[in-house]
Design a protein that fits this description.
single chain, alpha+beta, outer membrane lipoprotein receptor (LolB), chain A, 13-stranded mixed β-sheet, 6-stranded antiparallel β-sheet, 12 helices, 19 strands, 21% helix, globular
């Protein structure tokens, strides 16, 4: 099928559908508690692709927008391959924040769910409207769960027998009036639906959107929506979203890099049921002997100060001069750290620290001077020796070109 931009519908129609889709977020993940850039590895049932009625890309986008699934339960596999280097014991030697020490709780969700950003995991999810969600991260010998039930949010780590408890104030009239949509925009995508919404936000004149056949995911018939950058220089190769033929719910999300190989993010259900979960699914009481940490305790000034790295109060100032170069998939964020110096290197006399940083990055030179490019399979960053940073889902050559043109 021809790219979306060649259809009779206009890009204004696409943006309208995209905007509408963004308002229908399936409440699988606990409100405000989600992992960064996770993927769910799909399981396929049956053989061969299903024979479904033909649809256009615009119709499929509208189908996603019209989807209003409020009740479901299922199992997902989570696998993410960003190509990050193995730091070994470096993290522990630097001193972790939270993780059950005196400055936090091992059950606190914002740090615990970050485990989903790498490796492979099994997760159970359940939802019953906007007020009830449960997410359970299963390990071989333990389970970590986050439960949202009305205005109560509990997180429990069976490995450490610790629990974290807080109130969900996102629906409170006073705070909601102050936050508006800001709170929602700061949440990380954690389901195929949320990931698809984020991808559709980029579907402008720099993007090709097509329907690429059909498939089966978790035993259900689905259409494949293919999203591809039209610009050169992006590290994103393509995004495929499997859309349930019956409900319009995205069942699978796959992001493949332009460099080829395994997907960076692969999101899909291995099993899904749209029946109403039992009310008891969202009940929780801490087991006897559980160490319970209240959310307000972690917000107290003394513990917050202990958890804050030295000098972190100045981090926000470094981003005040943030500038975006280019547009669409090839956009690059540029800012100045303000110190006039880049990272320590072996040649600068920084010793072991410099040699370690040099081993993680590639040294580059150009009209801008010299610097180091740190790469993953999706996002690259250039830090120049005079303290400027260029970062984006673009190639190393694109970063060097941007730095040269900025001089």
């Amino acid at each position: 099928m021809a790219p979306y931009e060649s259809d009779d519908n206009t890009n204004d129609d696409l943006r309208t559908g995209r905007s509408k889709a963004a308002r229908y977020v399936v409440p699988v993940a606990v409100v405000g508690l989600a992992a960064a850039t996770i993927g769910l590895v799909p399981a396929f049932a049956g053989s061969g692709d299903p024979d479904l009625p033909k649809v256009t890309a615009q119709q499929l986008i509208e189908k996603i927008a019209a989807s209003d699934v409020q009740q479901l339960s299922g199992t997902v596999k989570i696998s993410t391959d960003l190509g990050l280097p193995d730091l070994g014991g470096l993290e522990s030697s630097l001193g972790g924040l939270g993780g059950g020490d005196e400055s936090g709780s091992s059950a606190e969700p914002s740090s615990k769910l970050m485990e989903l950003a790498s490796g492979t995991h099994t997760v159970r999810v359940a939802a019953d409207g906007e007020g009830r969600q449960k997410l359970s991260l299963l390990d071989k010998a333990s389970e970590y769960s986050v439960i949202h039930n009305g205005d109560e949010v509990w997180a429990y780590d069976s490995a450490s027998n610790e629990a974290y408890h807080t109130k969900d104030t996102s629906s409170g009239s006073a705070e909601k009036g102050e936050r508006g949509e800001k709170g929602k925009s700061e949440d990380m995508p954690a389901t195929p639906k949320e990931l698809a919404d984020e991808a559709l936000k980029a579907a402008d004149d720099t993007t090709s959107v097509t329907v690429d056949g059909t498939m089966r995911v978790a035993g259900r018939d689905a259409y494949k929506l293919l999203i591809e950058p039209k610009q050169s220089g992006s590290t994103v190769g393509a995004i495929t979203v499997a859309v349930d033929e019956k409900t319009g719910l995205p069942l699978k999300f796959t992001l493949t890099p332009a460099s080829g190989g395994a997907a960076v993010v692969d999101a899909g259900f291995t099993q899904v049921n749209f029946a109403k979960p039992a009310a008891s699914t969202f009940d929780f009481s801490p087991p006897k002997g559980t160490k319970v940490t209240e959310g307000d305790e972690l917000k107290s000034g003394d513990k917050a100060d202990r958890a804050r790295p030295e000098g972190s109060e100045d981090l926000g100032k470094e981003f005040e001069g943030l500038n975006v170069i280019g547009e669409g998939w090839s956009s690059i964020a540029q800012f100045d750290t303000g110190g006039g110096e880049g990272l320590p290197s072996e040649g600068s006399g920084a010793g072991d620290a410099g040699r370690f940083l040099d081993s993680l990055g590639d040294q580059v030179t150009g009209k801008f001077g010299s610097g180091t490019v740190f790469s993953t399979r999706l996002v690259n960053a250039l830090i120049t020796d005079d303290g400027k940073v260029y970062a984006g889902a673009v190639t190393k050559d694109a970063l060097v070109k941007a730095a040269n043109e900025a001089k």
